[in-house]
Design a protein that fits this description.
By secondary structure, the chain is mainly beta. Helices cover 3% and strands 43% of the residues. A hairpin with a 2-residue loop joins strand 5 and strand 6. The model has no long low-confidence stretch (mean pLDDT 77).
Amino acid sequence: MQLRDTLSNTDEGTSYLGTADIFNMEPQEVTYSPSGYIGCQSYFDTHVNVIGYFVIDAVHRRIFNINGDKVSNMTALNALKWFDGNLVKDVINPFKNNGRIWAFNEDTNILYLVQNVNNRQFTISFSPIANAWISFHDYNPIVGITNRNGLFWFDKHGIYAISKNNYGRFLKDDNNNQLVKESYIKFILNDNSNYNKLLNNIAWKDRVDIVNNLLPTINEFEKTINAILVHNDDQCTGYKLVKFNDIWYNGTTGVNKVNLWRFNNVNDIHKQIPFMITDLVVDESALKRKAKWYDVNKFICQYVYCIMKFNNSDNNRLWELIDINPEWILDNRNNQR
């Protein structure tokens, strides 16, 4: 039984005062699934911000963005396999070290997802502009709060601010020491992925700035990343130091010309497979150190992974990667065009 008092009755409709009946409104189907797709098993797995409604279907290990009548499977963008192996199904409460949290930084337009579940901890960020998952982060905060001053992370050691103009303090470990870690960026370079070609060099443009809210920004033109590594499934350069050199293109390492750098020491020195311990860590014992010239091979392949490492010596230095371009030489041994 449903008791309602009529407030008005006009040609445009009838207004009632009472308890709403969900069956009075016809449901609108967004996407069809006989097994109940886009189900949600935890209140903490949902999030609403200015770019839409986000929900995690942990049973199917999928993340969705629902904006109006449009549904986007975010896990299918560029991280489907990774989420299949890392998104935990049984989560309860992030405040009990068993759950997930969302946070959106309106200042930088970046969405963060944090999972704190025993050995399945991660923090990953999503850019609605690039429409892709863009980075992993070393920290695993308990909760994040956003306001007009930026994003604030909370953990058991304190509160940390993240914004465009204040890059925040480093998070702390259990001994109250600040965690200063390198930043890594890894991407795949695969122009004309159907063809084999020789990788001649990798050129990139970047800038390193000293940022101080009280002083003008200072560009350190002689600074760039600290190391670079190139590999595919069966070839690896190992991490190579990138040093400033005022001689343009000396043939051995990255050199500088108005924030433009080039790395052409792209030689395979692996001696055994596997040579990667994790996505970012290389097994030094699997590489040939001080290899003879005849024991070094060039990269002739369809694609390579490139890893850049930047040393965060202090939280006032900002590194920005502007552009990156590999130079390939097409391999015509198979009459490729």
